[in-house]
Amino acid sequence: MSTRNKKTLTTSLQRAVRLFIAGASFRSQRTADALGLHPTDMQFINLLDLLGPMTPGALAQCSGLSSGGVTVVLDRLEAAGYLRREANPDDRRSVLVHLQPSRQKRVDANYKDVQKQFAEITAGFSEVELEVVLRFFTASSAKRPPILQGRPAKVSAGFFRASTRQ
Prior knowledge:
The chain is mainly alpha-helical. The chain has a domain at 37-110: Winged helix-like DNA-binding domain superfamily/Winged helix DNA-binding domain (Arc Repressor Mutant, subunit A), CATH 1.10.10. The chain has helices at 3-35, 39-51, 56-63, 67-79, 101-109, 112-123, 127-141, and strands at 83-88, 91-99.
């Protein structure tokens, strides 16, 4: 591949990723609106769904919010019935935040069309092509904090309880 072609492809890929992120952000906003939630609430729900129960500190690291900001989001989600806080068995000084499965089903129901579209699109790709796409996103995520890669950061015990869902 020529350097010129690679540059063109790289520019096109960057544009496509930016458009994808914009579309996903707007979709998340519409879903949040439909559920009476804030967009940040949706991202916390997403993180807890993908990474499993975690401490408020881990959520702060993922989101970049202050501890006070995380508390506001968690209070809002707890009042709406989307999560519960339980004592952290690994550290009596902290809590673990858990999603409420019944409320998660309500969120999931709003993404059935997205899941169907994803299945339709990925059906058109070979295993090799899907491995390349996965490698791209894995490499992109590797530049983010460890917690957003689905693995714990180097912090005190109980900060993050890895129980990823598949």
